[in-house]
Amino acid sequence: MAVDRPTSDASAPIIIGDQARADELLSPFGMEEHPQGGFHGLLEVIPTKADYVLDLIRANSLWPLLSGLSCCAIEMMSTATSVNDIDRFGMFPFRASPRQADVLIVAGTLTTKMAGPLVRLWEQMPEPKWCVAMGTCTTSGGRFKRSYSVVQGVDRVMPVDVYVPGCPPRPEGLIYGMMKLHELVKQRRGEWRTYVDRGPQRTHWEGDVR
Amino acid sequence: MGRRRALSTPALAGSLVRLLTERFGSDLRDLGTDEDTVEFTIDGARNIEVLTALRDDPDLDFFMLADEAAVDYGLDAHFEVVYHLFSWKHPAWLRVRARVDRSDPRIETITHLWEGASFHEREMYDMMGIVFTGNRDLRRIYMSPDYRSFPQRRDFVLPDDAADSPAAGVNPLERPETWDLSRFGDGSR
Amino acid sequence: MTKLDPETRIPDPIELDAIEEARLRAAAGLAPIRSSTPEYAGFDQVGIPDRPPQTEREREVYSLEEGEMLINMGPQHPSTHGVMRLVVKVRGEIVVDIDPVLGYLHRGIEKLCENATYTTVLTYVDPMDYLATMHNEHAPAIAFEKLYGIRPPKRAEYIRALVVELERVSSHGLMMGFLALDMGGLTPILYAFINRDEIVDMQSAISGQRMLFNFFRVGGVNFDTNDEFLSRLGTWRGHVLKNIEMNERMITDNEIFRARTINMGTLSGADAISLGVTGPNLRASGVPFDVRKAHPYSIYHELEFDVITQQSGDSYARYLQRIAEIKQSIHLIDQIMDKMPHGPVQAQVPGIIRPKPGRAYAAIESPRGLYSVYSISDGGPNPYRFRMRDPSFISLQAMPKLMPGRLVADTMAIMASLDPVMGGVDK
Ligand code: SF4
User: C75–A114: do the CB atoms touch at under 8 Å?
Assistant: First the structure.
């Protein structure tokens, strides 16, 4: 329904009804409300850091890397398919190339032989990037903690932002973890530290690919 | 209580046992049966002869190698390579156990009888350190080529069981002194 | 089979200590090996491994002739079905040879099982073939029951057969989706997962877990059927055939799918037997070997079914075989539900069992073929030796047979038709 607006140069503010309130809100920015709608004044943009805005956008369209290690990967796929539909959170395009991905969901047991290639994938991803450890195997080694060939938690080889325990976590669990990651990205926006800043990482050890 | 099957009715198992004794006579040791398996032990050096006969003899006709596995019977004993065979003619699995000396773990490959034995043998080599002479592809299959231990042997104890076991130092992630951090310099960019 | 000439033979790595290795490398004019290389030291520029070849076969694959090159696929590759590396030798677009490199998911399950009690072993084997978890538990359960000398109650056997057949339907259904996915069709996998989710809901209703169920016990199963399970089963049974047929309509007559599967990766029956390929892949080559018939376990001797085979042995036959087996499994589920007796589902078994010393072998038909367990007891609370033979591990050996002469793009399509699962391949 169209609002009947006065066409004369009536001084009554239109959007913020109370003149005193409008002054209080707008004057610190040197702005006032235009009688015919909208605002005008010194500043026509809201001051912020580019990082703030970019990270807000990033948080709402995180692209995970299409990389599954073992059983948890099946639940990760199940999260992406129609029943659970992680597309709702802007996350559908599972990218096949690390150069196009923002999040590495480490889904499955990490073995010493696979650790090298995985760290390599992680290093190929552009900054900023986040890592989600899915499953107890990746958080601590889980049921294979005692094994001679298993890395006891992926945080031994790369920084992890969100841990999703479970063996395997339900798709709802992974979605909850990704929501937590959204929160984390938004909270830290403008302040993320690069991967190199987070400290030295190993990239090679015995048992690596030859 | 459900019986899995009237497994290997005595007559049939008996006929297999009789055939085996006829064919191999003195080679056989410890011939025995359980509910669905007939098993015997042979000397490791005779495995090719016995398995070829088992596969090619029209009465026996064990055409399929179901499994090939290795067992370690401890430091002062021997290894065993165990073949499980299947035949349409006999309602029992046949288990052939071949003894291998532990100090010199060598046995002839059977990849020319069943090509599919190749991966089994590579696995046994990787896990147990048994060398299959004549196998064209005897590399480590699971562990990386520079790995130096044989995890499935009995003297390989899992790390949290004994600090001085060969496995204690196996997980290199537990040994920060081997990490190479030089490329990161002093941490500044 | 040619034997290695002792003169030219490169010593086995078992006897290849560091000095010997250095000597060999010096003789071959190669740089000495660095024990800890800071960079990722996989291949040099033309793709030859940075060390002398260890075996005849390795030398064959990694020595290049004029016009040939090596392409590395994996270990992280969007369609390798897990972490597996294929080194493909190509001439132009044509595959000349292929070398599967395994072990990126080797978790040492056998060793862990040898250090666990018999009951706990059934939890360790779950992540092996993670699309057929119930099957993974079935074979050890049978083997331990043989060792311990008990039989599960009849109802437990029926529930076991019911859940494993359900699992087979879900596994084969996913295979159809993955096969289409590897040829670039995204839709079938979405439908396959819808069908799988229904089965997963059923299984989680009966066992409490979605994937790694730990449902089997020595001497029975963990829970009896419950109302939720039965009602979900009824709903599912009402529309499953329709859904399968819908999926089938999407794929079976698709022009591109047929062009990329018919006469691709043809495996003859004799080759398949020699290579140890089992399960649907073997039956697609015309060999009617099915452990459920050949060595009936559980209650399969009480059920009526035929062994289905295909004739041509190509990728398309392997796909058709899966569809036929899905329908067969549904038919078996009907029979099982009809015949299911009443009674207990768990025999009286203590928590820690100590079977008498002995050996037991149990083989079952998993969706990928003959899955068997060889277990030795020494009278203690944990198995002395616990060995698993996983069908997809052995099936992968067919790759170097199937690939030569095909295009690189068909590598994944042919591998997907063999349907390996890396958790089982690498244990
Ligand atoms: S946490 Fe469980 S489901 Fe996930 S990879 Fe490990 S064993 Fe498999």
Answer: yes
Neighbouring-strand partners of residue A107: A68, A134
> pLDDT tens digit string along B156-169?
777 655 444 444 44
Give yes or no for C161 touching B (CB within 8 A). Answer: no
| Residue C240, pLDDT above cutoff 50 | yes
- Beta carbon of A72 within 6 Å of any ligand 1 atom: yes
Q: What is the ipTM of this complex?
A: 0.81
- The verdict on the CB of residue A71 being under 6 Å from ligand 1 is yes
Neighbours of A17 (CB within 10 A): 9
In which residue are the tokens 């399509």 written? C413
Cβ distance of C130 and A74 shorter than 8 Å:
yes
**How far C161 CA sits from the closest chain A CA (Å)?**
23
> Residue B93: beta bridge partners?
B37
Chain A touched by B188 (CB under 8 Å)? no
Which residue CA neighbors atom 3 of ligand 1 most closely? A168
Taking the model in full, what pTM does it have? 0.79
Same-domain check for residues C241 and C213: yes
* Domain carrying residue C119: 109-398+421-426
Q: Give the SS3 label for residue C359.
A: strand
Q: What is the pLDDT of residues C95-137, one digit of tens each?
A: 888 888 888 888 889 988 888 888 888 888 988 888 888 899 9
Q: How is residue C72 written in tokens?
A: 């590395």
Which residues lie closer than 8 Å to B1 by C-beta, 6 or more apart?
Answer: C151, C153, C154
Per DSSP bridges, beta strands A130-134 and A103-107 are: parallel
**Which tokens go with A61?**
């369209």
Asked whether residue C78 falls in the same domain as residue C127, the answer is no
For domain A58-192, say whether CATH 3.40.50.12280 is its number.
yes
Task: Please state which architecture CATH assigns to domain B11-111.
Answer: 2-Layer Sandwich (3.30)
Burial of B45 (0-12, 13-18, 19+ CB in 10 A): middle
Q: Which of C72, C101, C130 is the C-terminal boundary of a domain? A: C101
Touching check for C237 and chain B: CB below 8 Å?
no
Closest in A113, A204, A206 to C39, CB measured: A204
